[in-house]
Amino acid sequence: GENVEQHPSTLSVQEGDSAVIKCTYSDSASNYFPWYKQELGKGPQLIIDIRSNVGEKKDQRIAVTLNKTAKHFSLHITETQPEDSAVYFCAASTRSNYQLIWGAGTKLIIKP
Amino acid sequence: DAGVIQSPRHEVTEMGQEVTLRCKPISGHNSLFWYRQTMMRGLELLIYFNNNVPIDDSGMPEDRFSAKMPNASFSTLKIQPSEPRDSAVYFCASSGSGAYNEQFFGPGTRLTVL
User: Fold this and answer.
1) In Å, how far is B102's CA from the nearest CA of chain A?
2) Which tens digit of pLDDT belongs to each residue from A9-61?
3) B40 and A CB contact within 8 Å
4) What is the distance between the alpha carbons of residues A101 and A22, in angstroms, rounded to a whole number?
5) Is A42's Cβ below 8 Å from some Cβ in B?
6) Distances (CA, A) of B46 to A52, A64, B34, B39, B58
7) pLDDT at A81
8) What would the mean pLDDT of A78-105 be, rounded to a whole number?
9) Considering only Cβ atoms within 10 Å of each terminal Cβ, which end of chain B, N or C, has fewer?
10) Three-class DSSP category at B86
11) What residues in B contact A34, CB-CB < 8 Å?
12) CA-to-CA distance for B82 and B99, rounded, in angstroms?
C-alpha cells in the first residue's frame, strides 16, 4: 500500500525567511497531493493541493512542487509570518481510492 | 455553513466506561471519516463511510471500537470498554463526491481515559 514520509518533523525559521517541507510517496499510482495546516486546538485545514498532471502550483506565499519521477513533493512558504506557525501535513491518494494517506506532520516554528 | 460539528469537545472518563463520540457532517457531503490523533502515532484513519455505508474499517484498532452512520447527517464512534491507551483527539471529517475533494475537519473531541 501507499506510504508517505515527511521531513523534517520540526522546522524553525526566522520570520521573513522561507520554509520548505518535503514528502515522498511510494505508490506510483498516486495522483492527488494535498497539504493541510493544523493550528493549535483545531482540525487540519486544506491550504493547497496539486494533481499529478501539474508540476507546480502557487497561491500567494505558498507553493507546492511535484516530481513524479522521483515521487516526491514539497511545500514552500515564502516571507514567513507568525501566523504560519502550525503543524503541516502532506498526504497522497489515488482517484480510485478516496482515502488520503497522511505524512507524520511537520511542526513549523516562526521565530520573531 | 456551520462546518463539521463534533460533540463533546472534551470527554474525561474512567477505564471500562463506554464512550460515544458524535459527528454531524456538512450538509450535502457524502463521505465521512473518523480519525484519531496522538503524539506517538500521528493522524490515523479509523473508518471511512461513503453514502452512509462503511467502506473501510481496517483502521479500527480492535473490537472495542465501533462506528455507525444511521443517516447522512449523523455518525457515532463508540468505544466500549474504554482503556487509557484510547486517550487521544478524535476528529471527524466530511467531503463531497469525487476523487479530489477537500476533507473538512471538525474541531475534534479530546478524550482522556483515566
Assistant:
1) 7
2) 999 999 999 999 999 999 988 999 999 999 999 999 999 999 888 899 999 99
3) no
4) 15
5) yes
6) 27, 28, 5, 16, 7
7) 97
8) 89
9) N
10) helix
11) 102
12) 35
- Rounded distance, CA A63 to CA A82, Å? 18
And the C-alpha cell for B65?
Answer: 471500537
Nearest by CB to B42, which of A51, A94, A102?
A102
> Residue B42 and residue A42: Cβ atoms within 8 Å?
no
Per the document, the length of chain B is 114
Question: Which among B6, B31, B43 is the top mutation candidate for probing chain A, defined by the most A β-carbons within 10 Å of its own β-carbon?
Answer: B43
DSSP track, A50-89:
EETT-SEEEETTEEEEEETTTTEEEEEE-S--GGG-EEEE
In this structure, is the dihedral angle defined by the CA atoms of residues A41, A47, A53 and A58, taken in order, positive or negative? negative
Q: How buried is residue B36: exposed, middle or buried, by Cβ count under 10 Å (0-12/13-18/19+)?
A: buried
Phi, psi of A79 (to 5 degrees): 45, 55
* Contact B25/A at CB under 8 A: no
Name the residue facing B91 among A43, A49, A100 (closest C-beta). Answer: A43
